[in-house]
Amino acid sequence: HTHTHTMDTTSWPIDGHYSWGQFVIVNGQRHRDELESLGYFGRDLDDIKRKLDSKRGPEDHRILDSVPVTEDDGIRVILSLHEAFFLTYALGSLVVKLNGTDSIIDIDTCWHEFRRYHRETNMMTDFAVEFCVYYYFRTRGWIVKSGNNYGSTFLLYKRSPSLDHSPYAIQIVQPGERKLGWQTVLTHHRVIQSVNKGLLIVHVEHPTGVYDRPSSIKDMRVCIRKVTCKTSLIT
């Protein structure tokens, strides 16, 4: 299931600001417009703040809890670590700086810091594995967003997430596991089916299981299985 979406590169890099956490922040209207033209990267902080509390999901609350909010924020776009690394590594369109400084964080350091954050905050899957899956679908034309609000790893969109329905949710199998238990799959499928999405179970194979550099993703193999239900049986 692939879809072609053209991604242009910007004529000059976008500045992103990172402090220890799970998001990179980009400021300014021009940069927001560029991120949208590149393929709808990031989420506008104002849009999240305007949501009624009853309409906010876990991802919305995580952003509001993690990002300092003031009365006059200006334009602020929140990038996930996957989005930020893709913009830096694959497109060369983002320069990540240490928050509050002009000190640039190079690609290798971003890789290690993002992995360390995942590891030390007990994220279920290695950032390297998640990014490999993100990279796989992004380079095949899909717009990839967090699936945390639906209990999955990612959601896939064909067009702008503000205008389009996501047809698929992705659940990544943990490294070292070949498959999820049927009860786990059924639970995920019921949640995803209730919001009219298909469920893709994905696992990543790597010859050594060592992801110490960004180039490791070139040796990873992404395996995908679509879950379908017929009556009460999973096939």
* Category from helices, strands and their pairing: alpha+beta
The major pleated sheet works out as: 5 strands, mixed
Gap between N and C termini, in Å? 18 Å
Number of helical stretches of at least 4 residues: 7
Order of helices and strands: EEHEHHEHEHHEEEHEEEE
- The rounded Rg comes to 18 Å
Gross geometry: globular
Contiguous uncertain segments of 5+ residues: 1-6, 231-235
Strand order of the largest sheet: 6-7-8-9-10
> Under CATH, the topology of the largest domain is which?
MutS, DNA mismatch repair protein, domain I
| Count of distinct structural domains | 2
CATH homologous superfamily caption of the largest domain: tRNA intron endonuclease, N-terminal domain
Oligomer: single chain
Q: Estimate what percentage of residues fall within beta strands.
A: 15-25%
**Count of β-strands:** 12
Helix content: 25-40%
Output the CATH class name of the largest domain. Alpha Beta
CATH architecture of the largest domain: 3-Layer(aba) Sandwich
Residue-averaged pLDDT: 82
GO cellular component, one term: cytoplasm
Catalytic activity: pretRNA = a 3'-half-tRNA molecule with a 5'-OH end + a 5'-half-tRNA molecule with a 2',3'-cyclic phosphate end + an intron with a 2',3'-cyclic phosphate and a 5'-hydroxyl terminus
Enzyme class: lyase
Domain tRNA intron endonuclease catalytic: 127-206
